[in-house]
Amino acid sequence: MMMVDTNLMVSITEANQNFSRVARMVDERGTVVIMKNNAPRYLLIDFSQADSMQAVSDEDVMNISARLINKNRQAYEELAK
Questions:
Q1: Alpha carbon 36 to chain centroid distance?
Q2: What's the CA gap between 22 and 32, in Å, rounded?
Q3: pLDDT given for residue 30 in this prediction
């Protein structure tokens, strides 16, 4: 579960009406969570952080893949015959 600083949360209405303020918050703090219907819906990040976030996602996929291969190694070896 992701922990969110409530000071970095704005409503979708506020984001729509005052986007420059929300953009400044991202410049100062790195991220802003935009709420829709009182639930976190969107994450606004600085563009320079996009690559590092993608790298984490790719790393997670590789870890899950390795775990599944190890767990099902016997089945994969049978299929490879």
A1: 17
A2: 7
A3: 86
Q: Show the domain range for 32.
A: 1-45
| Residues 18-39 pLDDT 10s | 999 999 999 998 889 999 998 8
Does the pLDDT at position 8 exceed 80?
A: yes
Verify that 62 and 33 share a domain, yes or no: no
Which residue reads 């506020």 in tokens?
Answer: 14
Strand partners, 45: 31
Backbone angles phi, psi at 45, to 5 degrees: -125, 160
Sign of CA dihedral 22, 25, 57, 50: positive
**Contact yes or no for 30/45 (Cβ under 8 A):** yes
Based on the fold, state whether residues 27 and 57 are members of the same structural domain: no
Predicted TM-score (pTM) of this structure: 0.58
